Amino acid sequence: MKVKDFIYLLFALPLLSCESVTCPINNTVACVYGFYASARTSDGTFVEGAAISIGDTLTITAMGADSVIANRLINKNGVSLPVSFYGDTDSLMFTFIDAQGAVGRDTIRIDKTNRAHLDDPSCPLHMWHTITAVQSTRHLIDTVLINHSDINYDGLENLQIYFRTAQ
Amino acid sequence: MMALRTFKYISVRLSSILLALCLSLSSHTVSAQEIQFGEKEQKSVHLIDGIAVGADILGFGLKAMGSDWSQMEVMARINMLDKYFPIFEMGIGEADHEGVDLDNHFTVRAPYFRIGADYNFTKKHNGNRLFLGLRYGFSFFNYNIDSPTPLEDPIWGAKQEVNFSDLSGNSHWAELVFGLETRLWSIVHLGWDVRMKLRIVENPHSIGSPWYVPGFGLNDTTSWGGSFKVLFDI
Q: Could you report how far apart the first and last alpha carbons of chain B are, in Å?
């Protein structure tokens, strides 16, 4: 009986560590932008404002890829946009069209580093990023600030876009 | 995703059933041994009552069966009063695993070490022992992740090969050990144990945690394991 028990356990023990695959449910990697109002004091000092919704129709194009990555957004207070897997810099063109059909454009340039991330061999490989710098033109946008530099699954707001608003 | 959930459910259920089977067999084995060996001749004990060396056969068996992971392990221990058994274990853990539904490929081969002690609960000094023990284990390792399918950017279009080599990591853990052992003849002992492993700290590479940690098993905050060992008194 003793030998039989040992044989049973010889086969049972390795199976006690059966694999369970736990891929994250929310695994979309995107750069999260928030829209904010801004103001300038008489001496030109930047003043952060409250979160706002953009009333204009907003279309965002990935320059270099010539792909529209957000199309005709209206009344949005933020947007989540894809990030290039391997580029050191992403340039995005924001096109605003108001109710009268007037068009305004701004370009945001994001410098970043890229790294692969794998939770488990049974989960898809993703690219994560770290924002190192951000610049923009200043037609409708006043300033872009880095809120969280790491772009991954966490959904935190990465960039805050401060728009010029009426004084 | 549905397939993954189903696989996870089946795995958890199977683990529960096997654990129950294992525990029932454990109690059965104890009673069998008591009957079979209860009348053996007892010996006097000393503070240092001997040294034993041995190997875990289970790891070799897993490797022979072509398991995705296996660990080949040897150990040395001191017998103190036939009650306390300080023990040192070391081995080589290796894994060669491909993802379910995906062709991501993980490999590692590295040494691991454990140090700890067992306490023998049996009163008779006849070579049959019932152990409860603790271990501290650690491993420093390099692992590899690759895939034959390049990772392509769906918008910007660029693609790169997936081949990450020598990703360094380390892991430290504790183990609670329950085991049985019997003296087969003369200097030869045969035993098995079940181990609950608790991760203390893990320092993986930033690309991702290893699928398998040498000496610990499949990487998680906890893990179950065991050994089936042959020991020789020297």
A: 54
